[in-house]
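Working notes for the structural subgroup meeting. M.R. asked for a predicted model of this chain before we commit to crystallization trials. I am recording the input and output together here so anyone reviewing the notebook later can reproduce the run.

Input as submitted:
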Amino acid sequence: MTKDAKSAATIRRRKKCNSFIDFERFKSSRASSPHEQIRQNPEDHESYLFDDEILGPLIVKKIMSSEKSLFFALICIRIVNSLLIQTSFVPDEYWQSIEVAHHMAYGYGYKTWEWNNGLRGYLYPSIFAIFYKILAILGMDNRVMLIKFPRIIQGVIAACGDLYLYKLSWLLSDRATAQWALFCQMTNWFMLYCSTRTLTNSTETAIVTAALYYYPWPLKVTTQQSVRRFLSLAALSILVRPTAAIIWILMCAWHLQTNTHRLPATLKHYFLVGPVTLLLSAALDRVFYGEWTCVQYNFLKFNVLGGGGSFYGTHPWHWYLTQGYPVIMGLHVLPFLLGIWRAKNKVPLLVIIWTIFIYSCLAHKEFRFLMPILPLSFHYCGLFFQNYCKKPKLKKQLIKKDVQNTLCSDKKENVLISNPTKNSTISSEEPEDNKDNTSGVNEKTLQQKDVSDMAEASRKQNAVHKAHLFRAKLLVIFLLLINIPATMYFSLIHQRGTIYVMKFLHDVSYEQHTDVLFLMPCHSTPYYSYLHRNISMRFLTCEPNLKQEDNYVDEADAFYRDPVLWLKSQYAATAAPWPSHLVYFNSLQNELSQYLLQNGYKDCASLFHTHLPEGRVGSHVIVSCR
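Returned structure, recorded in token form:
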């Protein structure tokens, strides 16, 4: 082999090695856990959230330097998040959690029809009931503490979910992706709006995320302990909210299918963890229901198999695809779609599609039902940002082509030198030392050409990288400018009247005898959990037709058909005393004002509720008193 051929081969080997450095780093970073990944790899700051070229705040780098500091920061953020919530979202955040807990701890509170028919489990409310008891023992069970403390507890649960998203995304990809995924979750308006509310969906989301981290993924080194943790958390999520089974039907089936060689040992864990957790839940429910019942089965039977959930509203099959999912994702849907396109691992996407498909088959649909799949969605957002912010790789084919062109040109020059034309003055019999000099010049020229090409490619690489970073920064700024104001508006302003009216009634109850009638859609306001006063209260019920009566009309619908006639039938035509306070939306003011004035009522308060009134919900909450 000639010297110039040897030199070219050496250059090709060197450039091939340089071209695959990132690939080799990627392969070595595929650890079975984030901690193992740290041990295997030195810290690489490329495309990290705290990279100086991306966002750069040193405080972010310090927070993310360890899992403990990150978790502490997440708890602080979520507690602040929880304390900012001053509005109502859905009735379940009160009536299926803290209202029941208040009844468990203090002996008074309202339990809706679900609790009288064994459709709800006492596990989730028990968390708040325990803390209510502790506050009572410490003499700190005032109204403010009873409202804020459950939110703080839920904030800590949400922080656990955030941390496990970080660990899960790191496990499925790398640390940079995990940081971006966490950033996307922490800046999503719907997660900021809902994750610290006392909803079973919020707790379900955190538990499902933790269970997915312990899930025996194919590339993960699985231990028996991690399998037990996964199954325990999966079972716990189903106990908190039975619809979590939708996700676990798919994931557990995949787990069993990929572990056929260890099927007996795997099934042993399933048959051990599942029945034990179910038995513990049944024992807790036995204490409060007074009889043995399986609330998870009752819940699924009524809401899913029996279609009872449709009593509270229905939507078309495509609602989650056209409205539900795009709305809760907001602008994050753009990096999500781009992340899917770049991702190699499509299993989390399959979970997302499966969950949306199953929920789309159910008539009753709500935004919050999709919360458990949001962390997986933000993982794909993180993949997009991580890929977009790292330096693009040099094009190996272009470099090889340049080397080949250089070699070809050198060979042509050698042919001209060794085979001169008839008119040439160069002798065909050159000394050997001249040939050596020629090959040395060719090698030097080749190296200079290689350096020049590499420098040009590096300049192009840096230019593309800077352009990507600039666009990523613009997208991050745009996400913040849209999501943060939306969060503040929905958390502090939208639908706040039904919360503020409870403070008004609480203060009034100390000044005079108070009994209240809420003439609003059922469960529009919190109840005793926000009043902490054992006064007489009544609201319009909206129970489904449990007794299968013909021409059944619930109390709320009967009232709204003719409000004045309903009041006459309840009070004027009977000996029942009128309540001291009536609470209703201003959408009824024109119909009720004259009749209430005739019966001695006057407007005592008008509280702003929303800029977006619709249907039976008005823009203000009116309190009439006598």
